[in-house]
Each structure stands twice: as structure tokens, then as C-alpha cells.
User: Fold Oxidoreductase from Bifidobacterium moraviense.
Amino acid sequence: MAEEARNGEATKRAVVTGASSGIGAASVRALVKDGWTVVALARREARLKALADELGPAVSYVACDITGEASTQAAVDRILEAGPVKALVNCAGAAFGKDPVATASLDDWRGMYELNVIGTLRITQKLLPALKQAPGGGTVLVISSTAGIEPYEGGAGYCASKFAERVMARVLRLEQIGEPVRVIDIAPGMVETDEFSLKRFGGDAARAAAVYAGVPSPLKAEDIAECVTWALAQPDTVDIDQIVVRPRAEGSYTKVYREA
Ligand SMILES: NC(=O)c1ccc[n+]([C@@H]2O[C@H](COP(=O)([O-])OP(=O)(O)OC[C@H]3O[C@@H](n4cnc5c(N)ncnc54)[C@H](OP(=O)(O)O)[C@@H]3O)[C@@H](O)[C@H]2O)c1
Assistant:
């Protein structure tokens, strides 16, 4: 983290979880372009290193599993030793399975709760005091989902976890009124990323591809990264409480236009 000593006084220093792929990696790229110094977090260190090599000294990284207490504490300690933090972008998350409530795997549900809800809560709690000490105040941002607004068949476990993530962000916002911290919830609809649907369907590429089949232009990770940088770029006293962003072709999860 030598580069961060150099940038130790930078006021725009962000931590991005889930930075090894998809929306998280795109957010790191966009934030760097917008003048931020970024600490990239995820479990796959080789991917984080590749991102840091690509983007140069503005990016450092720490391998971290946010479902693990010791791993997360060690990462937070390293981050805070290297300097102050102004923003936390909670992007790490996943869907596991798309089974009906009647037969869904308890392990899938447990995995989504552990990652999307408890993992996000864990790192947010650990970084909150430091965020509030940032000059001008800090920001907690979550990438939730429209799955946390409208549930759909087969999605109960994922939707429930994303409802919980959104409630956490909303209640944190209420509880921190008067404190120097913003809480921002970005809820994307369909975003075509390389791994999200593949992981959901246990590596079944055909099933993953079918999610986006015929949809003229699903959102790209870069579209969400743009929302992240824009929301963070507002004055410290302006809180973009919620952004709901979908492709034009998607009215809701169950109302999607597809070309034949
Ligand atoms: N794609 C969509 O359509 C969509 C729509 C709405 C919301 N979202 C949300 O946006 C976020 C990112 O999605 P995405 O499409 O970019 O998916 P993705 O490419 O699969 O990214 C998920 C990220 O989370 C990290 N991660 C997974 N488990 C982790 C753990 N235990 N500890 C730390 N990091 C972990 C992964 O890295 P490692 O495996 O290296 O740890 C990866 O970097 C998720 O929260 C997702 O629910 C996605």
C-alpha cells in the first residue's frame, strides 16, 4: 500500500467491495477517472492485482472475504493504517439459485444473507467511524437491486436479501441524521455482467445467457459506475438517497421487451 502513503492526505479515498469483477471493477475504474484513490476489495487477489496494475498508483487492494470476521477486520485495519477513508461502495453481492420457496436450498438462502446482508453490514459497521471523520463527511453507498423493491417468482431468497440491504441503508440514513455521513442506495435492474448470472445458475452458461437474450441493451457495469461517481460527486451536504436504474427495455423484472 505504499502508493497510499503518498496519497495519505487525499480527501477522495474510497473503498470498493466486490471490485474483482462486474459493477465493482467498473466503479473502481470510474472513480479513478474522477480523481479518487481507491482501495479495491474482493476475495480473488490476482484479479485485484490486475486491476491495480491496469490503473496505476491510484489503486491499491486487499484480499478480503466480507463474510469472515477476521478477514474483514484485517482488511479494515490495513486500510485505516494507510490513511483516511471518505467513501465505502458496497458492491460485493450475489444471487444463488432461482428456485421456488417450496424447494429452495437453505444453503443458497444462507449464502445470500451472509454475503448481501451480514457481510455488507459487517464492513459498513467497521468503516463507519472513520467515514464520519473524513473532512467534509463520508459516504456509505450500497449497490442493492430492484429485486429489493419488487419480488419475483423464483427470486425470494435473493429478493429478501436485497430488501434487507435496502432497509439497512434506509434505517442507517435515518439513524445518522445530524452526523457527517451520507447514505446512498443505488438499485439497478438488469445489468449484463460476466459473472453474476453464471454464478446464480451454478456455472450453467446457457441459462445465464437466457437472462439477457433478445434484450436490446441491458445495462452495462459502466452505467452503474456512472451513477456511483455522480452520486459521490455531489456536495457533501447533498444526499442522493436512492437511484433506481433500469434498461429502457425493462419495466420490471417480469415486464421485459425482447427481440425475437
Ligand atoms: N448484474 C445485475 O444484473 C445486478 C442487478 C442489480 C444489482 N446487482 C448487484 O450488484 C452487485 C455486483 O454485481 P455484479 O453483476 O457486478 O456481479 P459480480 O461480477 O458477480 O460481482 C460480485 C463481486 O462480489 C465479490 N464477492 C463475492 N463474494 C464475496 C465475499 N464473500 N467477500 C468479498 N467479496 C465477494 C466478487 O469477488 P470475489 O469472488 O473475487 O470475492 C465480485 O467482485 C451485487 O451486489 C449484485 O447483487 C447486480
Remarks:
- The chain has one domain: 13-248.
- Residues 213 and 258 are 7 Å apart (CA to CA).
